[in-house]
Amino acid sequence: MEDDNSLLHVNHDPITVVGSCKLCSRELTNAELLSIIIKCVNFAAIKHKDQRRKDEQETPYINHPIGVANILSQEGNIHDPVVIIAALLHDIVEDTNTTFEEIENQFGTEVCNIVKEVTDDKSLPKAERKKLQIQNASKKSHKAKLINLADKLYNLRDLQRAIPVGWSQDRVKEYFKWSKAVVDGCRGTNFSLERELDVIFAERIAQDRENCTCKRSLIP
């Protein structure tokens, strides 16, 4: 008789193992989940290996998706493996030669669908992509909104740390204004992340008022 274990396989849900019947299905063990997370980090590191952030230090780009996943886990108290894996992959189709089919084959359908939600259509002009992020923010799934919030939090903190090479102060202000519009479309998703974002927006408003002779905020 065939060993029951030979019937087990990981399906397109990365955190479930299914057997020959529903009774045989189970969630992955902690060790198996850890293995998938490490596999994903390695996958993302290889894909992003030649990319750098736009700061003067040319920080390795992989720091960003790992940082977004860390914000979700440590500050958002999000421990859903699907969200963490999707966060690690959230820029990978936009910025590398990775396909959605590759993501689905490696990490499952749900992860792939979330990555699709947070991926811009690079065939569109940049201004149109940014406009669509604002328009579509409220329409995204809860898990995609979590990634959007953590992504904006990471990027805004990075802007506070160092302005990208070639950016003017006006461009920085516009990025804050645009980010707030996207975040506002994700309100009600995660109190902790939204609170941290609001602290940053408040600090920016205070800074702009201090530097503006008419004392009016540049962020509504």
From TrEMBL:
Functional note: ppGpp hydrolyzing enzyme involved in starvation response.
Q: Which PROSITE patterns match?
A: HD
Could you tell me one molecular function GO term of this UniProt entry? guanosine-3',5'-bis(diphosphate) 3'-diphosphatase activity
Recorded name of the encoding gene: HDDC3
Q: Where is the HD domain?
A: 61-156
Q: Known catalysed reaction(s)?
A: guanosine 3',5'-bis(diphosphate) + H2O = GDP + diphosphate + H(+)
Q: Which cofactor does it need?
A: Mn(2+)
- A Pfam family this protein belongs to? HD_4
What is the organism lineage in this UniProt record? Eukaryota, Metazoa, Ecdysozoa, Arthropoda, Hexapoda
Q: Which InterPro entries match?
A: HD/PDEase_dom, HD_domain, MESH1
Family named by the database record? Belongs to the MESH1 family.
Q: What is its EC number?
A: 3.1.7.2
The enzyme's main class, written as a single word, is hydrolase
Arranged from A to Z, the UniProt key words for this protein are: Hydrolase, Manganese, Metal-binding
Q: How is this protein named in the record? A: Guanosine-3',5'-bis(diphosphate) 3'-pyrophosphohydrolase MESH1
Q: What CDD domains does this protein's entry cite?
A: HDc
Superkingdom is Eukaryota
